[in-house]
What does this fold into?
Amino acid sequence: MAKSTASQKSLYSNHFVRYTSSRAFFNSPAINDNKPSSVLKSRARFNKFVRNQCRIGFKSVDDANILFHEMIQMQPVPSLSYFTQVVAAIARMKHYEAAISVIEEMEFLEILDPDVHILSVLINCYCHLNRVDLGFSVLGRVLKLGYEVDVALFTTLIKGLIGDNQMGLAVELFKNMLEQGIHPNSITCGTIINGLCKMGNTNAAIQLVKKMKNGRMEVGDVVYSMIIDSLCKDGMVTEAFRLFEKLILGTSKPNVGMYNSMIRGLCNTNRWKEGMEVFEKIPNPDVQTYTILVDSLCKEGEVEKAAKMVELMIQKAVKPDVVTYSALVDGYCLQGRLHEAEKVVDSMISNECNPNAHTYNILINGYCKKKRTDDALKVFDKMSQRGLIANTITYTTLIHGYCLSRQPSVALHFLKKMQSCGQHPDIVTYSILLDGLFKNNYHKKAMNLFQEMKESKLDLDVVVYGILINGLCKARELESAKNVFHGLESNGINPNTRIFNILIDGLFKGGLEDEAIMLFQEMVESGYCSPDGCTYNIVIQGLVCNNNGKRAIEFVDEMVGKGFSADASTAEILLGVSTDRNLDQSPFVLNSLSTSNTNNITFHN
It folds into this structure.
């Protein structure tokens, strides 16, 4: 690496500063087979040993440290390049902190002055530890020593900035790199394009690709794959398809990754015909290609076609993996065909493809949705027998199933079981159980659970409080429900439309019409939460049920004026009281109230 120029030092000050404002070794199993006594007969043989050991890798970071400490005791010590090889080998093992410690020890012992190569390893380690600020500090040392920054070091820092969610600075550094006359390689461009795509800035990534092509830089398949995949994920499938077709017609042919991204994008937007046409053009579809199609077909309810796709891939000598089979299991479960789903799992095992926890979770969920908790429990037991550990999703699914099948005591048992097994219930687990306890009239246990949730330091969100207020309203504990509602702000939560609707409905059903209307007005005046169609339907139904048909009609007028419609329940209630004189005298006419069209009811003047 050449000495640094004045412009590069300026680059550092303008950009980077702103961003940052022993012989026991021979008993080691790593070398026992290498006859260390003969290794030490000559320095050349020892150096060769170090090179080979670093090339093949160490069995553990401890072995690398033992070698390092043996090296620093030698007289004279090996040259810096051998220390750099050891440090780089430690970094390749992803023991970045250990690599940094070795470099720091070298500097502390003043063994050898670090050069640009070992400092580059140090920068790489800091970037992998999300301490790119320290990476830039080391860069300052590189420039101070008079070395130039090459493309590899720029790429490392760009990658570090992206990993630190500093995409703007990464792009700026990339531009500065170009200004310094340093030409990015395919890895640099791939890194910055990948970052832009992951940030959802696909247009900027495309512009960069155009600049690369104008600069006669080679744009590899990996870069095009990123662009196509990102366009599809952004919903820009037509644009992705245009680019894909250009690649087919051009000199650069799509790889299987591009085909897979394109097929996934087309299937996700229901462009099945084009998706299958792309599939038929793939020279050698891989397991991911088939899995994308199997999963998409299952989600569309075409499970028979999905099963045939699995048969086809087996005929083509492409072995389905656990993801493929799990997608098919899910397809059968979505249709309630649980016996067929079980047969797929059996087929997996017979084909030497082991189901994982996700596979069993899908099957357990299928049984739980059908309230077949006994069968779900059998699957849970099979899972344990195969040595798989039930995770939070497994237990949450079972808890939900037992709540649905009106067995809240068993659901509580599984909460305790998962905790005793070292699995931590998350906010979803607690929310499902809280809702299930209230719906099964286990109000006291529900309140005890809510207290446990508060003590567990979980971040209780608006969904949890909605469940709590709804449960209290259903139990006619309206004072408690109101207290919880009025305490939301102190808990850092603004009530959403659903929570307002729940409490307004509860107040009406509790005969507190005036309070319900006052809460409706509070909702209107809140500035952050406006009434929706559901709100108006609740108010209208509440007023009619409280024998206030005249006022209900006023809200019908307001509802229509805001573009909302009556739902079937509201229409039925209004029809039931249509002979009331208040309604007869109303200037409003209830239109389109046929039993075949009660889901789309509108009121007209």
In short: DSSP finds 34 helices and two strands in the chain. The radius of gyration is 33 Å. Residues 11-40, 584-605 have pLDDT under 50 and may be disordered. The first helix runs from residue 6 to 20.
